[in-house]
Design a protein that fits this description.
By secondary structure, the chain is of the alpha/beta class. The protein has two domains: 2-163; 169-282, no CATH class. The chain has nine helices and eleven strands. Strands 1, 2, 3, 4, 5 and 6 form a six-stranded mixed beta sheet that branches. A five-stranded mixed beta sheet has the order 8-7-9-10-11. Helix 3 (50-62) packs across helix 5 (143-159). It is globular and about 55 Å long. Residues 1-21 have low confidence and may be disordered.
């Protein structure tokens, strides 16, 4: 993974750590160009890399909105100023005003622009994937649903008269009420001690939940099971209490986010999905 990151990743620094990292947002007029464009998926030069394999498979199976092509990092650098092109690429992200210097891997969908700095390219989507340096297996197994969400996100923006509301992914928390009518799948490692069994969960959340492993979740995503939700939790790993923990619930059948939240990890907060998170949904 290190070679991939060193070759490809660009540092994005946000101006406001409270709303996460953002470029300038694409305008409605610019977004309309997407429908007649080609999506350029930036790859690493190593075809055997887990990320390459996962993103290529997901795009080829599920990206239907536009034609697509693959670019190497060098090709991206030579083409990124073309305003008629749109790029899907991973980036390193450090949050401004965060003295902890935590570094994250994000998936970005941006429009080509003549700006000298990458962080001034018009943004359509900025989605957290993982902390840099963690095992890529912690996120590549859900790449199918992530690409499907990215496509649905673009569709919803194109259909909306107010694309600024998509600026913060918490926009999708309006789907929270639908969580209760679907089955939520969670890995045991992602649950806090106060809800690490079904019995404990039921005391704060009386709706369908199953505790399963990543292999089962991968199969559910592949089969596009109906009425199923999965939790993707992003943290720096066991024993590390620096940075942010992201908690994202994806719907497998309609390819939307149903819950998006994050919290700062500390000695008192592990960043795991806890009774507090379940109560946010329940209440």
């Amino acid at each position: 993974m290190k070679s991939f990151l060193s070759l490809l990743i660009i540092i994005f620094v946000c101006a406001n750590a409270l709303i996460a990292q953002h470029n300038k947002q694409v305008t409605k007029q610019q977004l309309e160009l997407f429908k007649k464009s080609t999506l350029y998926v930036v790859m690493d030069d190593d075809p055997a890399l887990g990320y390459n394999i996962a993103i290529k498979s997901a795009v080829e199976h599920f990206w239907k909105l536009t034609p697509y092509k693959y670019l190497s990092p060098d090709e991206f650098e030579t083409q990124r100023k073309d305003k008629d092109k749109f790029f899907l690429l991973p980036t390193k992200v450090t949050l401004a005003k965060d003295k902890r210097n935590a570094e994250y891997l994000y998936l970005n969908l941006v429009m080509g622009d003549t700006a000298e700095n990458i962080d001034n390219m018009p943004e359509i989507l900025t989605l957290p994937l993982a902390y840099t340096g963690v095992d890529e297996n912690s996120y590549v197994y859900i790449m199918d649903v992530i690409v499907r969400f990215a496509q649905e996100h673009v569709k919803q923006m194109l259909a909306s008269d107010r694309i600024t509301q998509f600026r913060n992914l918490k926009y999708y928390n309006r789907n929270e009420d639908k969580i209760k009518i679907k089955t939520l799948l969670i890995e045991k490692k992602d649950l806090g001690d106060d809800v690490n069994t079904i019995e404990k969960i039921k005391t704060v959340y009386p709706y369908p939940v199953k505790i399963i492993d990543s292999e089962e979740i991968e199969k559910v995503i592949s089969d596009m099971k109906q009425n199923i939700l999965i939790l993707h939790r992003i943290d720096p790993g066991e024993g590390d209490n620096v940075g942010r923990a992201y908690k994202i619930i994806y719907s497998v059948d309609d390819n939307l986010i149903y819950y998006y939240n994050y919290e700062n990890i500390s000695q008192s907060r592990s960043g795991k999905f806890t009774a507090r998170d379940f109560k946010r949904i329940f209440e």
